[in-house]
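Worked example 3. Consider a protein that binds flavin-adenine dinucleotide.
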Amino acid sequence: MSISRRDFNKLLLSGVAGSAFGLFGMNSKTFASGAARKHVVVVGGGFGGAATAKYLRKLDPSLSVTLIEQKLSYVTCPFSNWVIGGLKNIKDITHTYTALRTRHGINVIADRVVSIDAPKGQLKLASGKMIGYDRLVVAPGIDFKYEAVPGYSQKIAETKIPHAWQAGAQTLLLQRQLHGMKNGSDVIICAPDNPFRCPPGPYERASLIAHYLKKHKPQSKVIILDAKEKFSKQGLFTKGWERLYPGKIAWHSSTGGGKVLGVNAENMSVETEFGAIKGGVINVIPPQKAGKIAFDTGLTNEKGWCPVHPSSFESTILKGIHVVGDACVAGAMPKSGFAASSQGKVAAAAIINLLNGKEPAPPSLVNTCYSLIGPEYGISVAGVYQFAAAGIVEIPGSGGLTPLDASDDQLQQEALFAEGWYTNISKDIWG
Ligand SMILES: Cc1cc2nc3c(=O)[nH]c(=O)nc-3n(C[C@H](O)[C@H](O)[C@H](O)COP(=O)(O)OP(=O)(O)OC[C@H]3O[C@@H](n4cnc5c(N)ncnc54)[C@H](O)[C@@H]3O)c2cc1C
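Given these inputs, the predicted complex is written out as C-alpha cells:
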C-alpha cells in the first residue's frame, strides 16, 4: 500500500499523532507498570516543550511531569503573519496552559528558569525555588544576535524597528506601524542568512503585507533585503507575487543589493552595499542562536546551537538533558513549529525508554510548512526524516512542494489545509 504525503500528515495530526509511536513499538502500559514515579522537567512551553510534556504524560501516565514557562499564555509565530496582514486576530493565535494542567496532569509553573545545575540534576527559578529532575528537556526557542546588524539592538527592536520573530507584542507593534504608515512609503524586510527560525517566514510576511498594502496603501510596496542568494519555496513565492502583487514586492539577493550593512533608527533607513534605503516601516529579522538558558547551561556549540543525539535529542554535551525545537541541531529538519513538536514526541518516547533502562528506538520525524501568499493562495513544503549515519536526513521522495503549475483550486485547498493544520497542531499540543 502506498501512502501519500498528505495522508501521512493527516495521520500524524489526527489525534493519533501518537500513531507515530507505533513506530517505537510502545504504549503507555508498557512503561506505566515497571517505572517508579520519575520526574521529568521541561523548560519552555512552545511547540517543542509543550509537545514533549504532553506526550510524556500520554505515553506514561505514571510519570510526574513539570513544565516551566515564563509566560502565562503562548502566542504562536505560525499565523502571526496572518495577524500582521489583517487576516487573523492576535486572540486567534494565543493559547493557554489550562488543558495541559487540568486534562493532562502536568504541573505547569509560570516562572523563568535562571540556572541549571546538570551534575546535581536541579534547576533554579527566578522566584528562587529549586526543582530537581530525573531527566530534563530544554526547549527555549531562539535568541537574537542583535549585534550582527550594526545600529540594531533589543531596545530598537522593542520601540522602532521590530523583528516580530517572536510573536506577541512584537507582532502587534509591526501591525500598528503598518497601519500608521503613509500611503506611498515602503516596507523594508531584512531577512537573515541560514539557519534561522521558519525559512519561508519572511516571504510569507512579505506576501501578506503586500496583501494589506494592495487594499489600504496602494502606492506602497515591500522591499526584501536578503542575506541569502536563494530562499525557501522561491519559485512558488515568486510566481504568486507576480500573479497577486505585480510590482509590489522587490526581492534583492545578498549580492544583488540585499546585504544589510547597518540600520539607522533615527532616519529609518537601511544601509546596503548599493546605498541607503528609507522605509516607512522596517522589519529587521536578525541572525539567531539558541535561547539564553541553553547558552548559560553550556549546551551550545561554537555556532550557538545545541548538538543532540538524533535518536533521543539528548545533548551530546550534557548527559540527562534533552534539547528539542529551534534551539537544537536537527540535521536536515528546518526550524519550524511542526518539526519542534515532532522532535518533542520523539524525545518523550526516548526519555521513557531511557528511564526504563532501554535504548531509544530509531526515530521517524515529520514536517510540513504551509505559507499563505494570499487569502486563497496557499503553498506548502513537506518532508519525512529519519536517523542515518549523517544525522537526521530527509527520506528521499517522502515529501515535496506544491507543484509550480498547481491549479487555482489546489492553491485554494492549500490555504484551507493551512488552517486545518493550525487548528490540529494547536489542539495536539495545548488542547
Ligand atoms: C513569522 C513566523 C511564522 C512561522 N510560521 C510557521 C508555520 O507556519 N509552521 C511552523 O511549523 N512553524 C512556523 N514558524 C516557526 C515556529 O514558530 C518555531 O519553529 C517554533 O516556535 C519553535 O518552537 P520551540 O518550542 O523551539 O520554541 P518557542 O516556540 O519559541 O518556545 C520556547 C518557549 O520557551 C520559553 N522560555 C525560554 N526560555 C525560558 C526560561 N529560561 N524559562 C522559562 N521559559 C523559557 C519561551 O517563553 C517560549 O514560550 C514560524 C515562525 C515565525 C517567526
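Take a moment to read the result before moving on. Residues 1-35 have pLDDT under 50 and may be disordered. The pocket of flavin-adenine dinucleotide is lined by residues 43-49, 68-71, 74, 77-78, 80-81, 112-113, 139-141, 165, 197-198, 201, 205, 291, 293, 325-327, 335-338, 340, 369-370 (CB under 6 Å).
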